[in-house]
Amino acid sequence: MQDTLLIVEDQFIEANNLKIILLKADYRVLPIARSVDDALEIIDGQVPDLVLLDIFLKGERTGIDLAHILKARGIAFVYLSANSDKSVFTAAKMTGPYGFLIKPFRERDVLAMLDIAWYHHTQKVMVRENESKNKNPGITASRDKELKKIVGDSDAIQAVLKNVQTVADTNVPVLLLGESGTGKELIAKLIHELSHRRTGRLVVVDCAAMPPHLIESELFGHEKGSFTGAFEKRIGKFEQASGGTVFLDEIGELPLDLQVKFLRVLQEMEIEPIGGKRRKVDVRILAATNRNLEEEMANGRFRLDLYYRLNIFPVQLPPLRQRQADILTLAEYFLEVQTARFGKEITGFSAEVKQMLLNYQWPGNVRELENLITRSILLCVGSQINEMQLPKSNQLSEAGADLKVKTMTESERDLILAALRECNWKIYGPGGAAELLDINASTLKSRMKKLGI
Length: 453
What we know:
The chain is of the alpha/beta class and 453 residues long. Helices cover 48% and strands 12% of the residues.
């Protein structure tokens, strides 16, 4: 049975060229609609499998107006656009399209985007089926046990956990977004533990920590003698995780040439080791980044097709400053865990320290809070934490500021924080803090971890 498509485009030449491409690829194409009213009249007669939708159309209503109607009716759509205006793109993106096709249309781009759209559709069907399955009381009880491992009752973190429950027991790729220190790896582990792959391995790959010339071998493996220094066969991360889950942290750091090979894993569940033959793997992909992938795409550093393959089910992790209701709960949790670890008897925090914790903005998020609590426990000499050395602002006051001489460690921490703020908390790549400080990004990340940032 042929898939039925509807083209909604008011430019005759462009619409006709697109129709020719689709007919050549054996799609069934409904009559071309020039306006929202035309499109709705056609859809009332026959519902298409997918709508190719221009943003600016004849008449008062736009493609974005029609997109809201299509979404309400459960009809998939892809935008057609030559417009690069950011506000228009943002408004279009909010309607939840399966992708964007940029004019003028090229046959290979059209067919690739349709392939991605069908993939999105099947994956979202899996998510909806999983939502109804989660209503089973027995499944809910076992999931609740795992979910309690995530500390916090704020609306922001509860929204994240709801998304996790929805997507966990599917094979849908998940893209975890958020600032450094928000707990992306912890959420990835939770998704794995709630999935049917929980008995398999969870293999964590830090794309930012691997030297570029070793990433391909680490991910895909290599055969003995395939290059100088390959003295033995290596099994790559994807193959190691077969039957389980691969979590790719800092996916935005993956070089463009390897993005192509990674795309094959998502599309075909297939790897090609260096010097070896292609073979199938059975893995679920989770990925995370603190970068803005849309900006990375605009700058040519991240592939559009890979973005759409990964972005089927994005989960945005809130920064700690947006989870104020969780700050003291988390602080008390870390206090309990770390006092047991160090064998110290500390009952809690003074009222002054609690207020300090609530007033601080936590640029390093939950990781910074945990490190700060650990340090305070080690420095505490009584049964209660009565003081806490929170980082001070680098800005001098008009009165002359605090001229206290700082230790080398304090100065280094302040310098790194200043660089991170200057770069809007971007660590890697052009315009990142590593470039500003003129040090290797991996070295910076290591220093940040040591300094509790």
